[in-house]
Amino acid sequence: MKILSLLIFFVINITCKENTTVYICNSPGAKKYHITSDCRGLSSCSYKIVKVDIDKAKKDGKVLCKWEK
Ligand SMILES: [Zn+2]
User: Fold this and answer.
1) pLDDT, tens digit (0-9, with 9 covering 90-100), for 46-69
2) What residue numbers bound the domain in which 60 lies?
3) How far is the CA of 69 from the centre of ligand 1 (A)?
4) Residue 47 Cα to ligand 1 middle (Å)
5) Origin, by domain of life (predicted)?
């Protein structure tokens, strides 16, 4: 099972390679990152919306927002 999830992670990594910059809500409770800055998941953000590298967002434990899956 570990190999399978690793494989899925690898495939996701490849498909996301073109988008290296993502948007996150600079809120302490934010757990998602967004591909587009006008995503509906970001519209509820009352903090600053910041642009970060996708690798950094993932390292911070952020996951792709549910609206963009
Ligand atoms: Zn989003």
Assistant:
1) 999 999 999 999 999 999 999 987
2) 19-68
3) 9
4) 15
5) Bacteria
